[in-house]
Design brief:
Structural class: mainly alpha
Strand content: 5-15%
Number of strands: 2
Order of helices and strands: EEHHHHHHH
Largest sheet: 2 strands, antiparallel
Number of domains: 1
């Protein structure tokens, strides 16, 4: 799996972050979500999935970052006038570049997953269902 990277400029900070989806990020994602990659990426984008993806994508740069810290970064971004779609798009670019969707789903389903993710992000859809329920 190649490393996927993408730049994310948060509205409340002067510097840009380099998001990174690599083996460590994917392993953290599986450990923290309790789901395999296929299950995780079939889910609709929600506040919880966004926060988890951001957390694992930033850990190479912010060692020890936890979910609450990633959630705080998202909240500060929105409070400063940023949009959730900006975060979603940057995360999507890093995931796409990593090839993880292609590795898990193959080409055809990867395209369907990207279309679903884009629709959820642009429409602001939120999955109100708890992760464990």
């Amino acid at each position: 799996m190649p490393v996927g990277t993408s730049e994310l400029k948060l509205a409340h900070e002067k510097r840009a972050y380099q998001l990174r989806i690599d083996h460590n990020a994917i392993a953290d994602l599986e450990d923290m979500s309790g789901l395999g990659l296929g299950e995780f990426f079939r889910r609709q984008m929600s506040f919880a999935t966004r926060r988890l993806l951001l957390c694992v994508a930033l850990r190479h740069e912010r060692r020890g970052l936890q979910l609450a810290g990633a959630g705080l970064l998202i909240q500060q971004h929105v409070d400063a006038g940023g949009k959730l779609s900006e975060i979603d798009e940057a995360l999507g670019r890093a995931v796409e570049e990593s090839g993880v969707l292609r590795d898990v789903f193959g080409e055809d389903e990867k395209d369907d997953q990207e279309d679903d993710a884009a629709a959820a992000g642009s429409a602001g859809d939120v999955d109100p269902t708890p992760a464990n329920g």
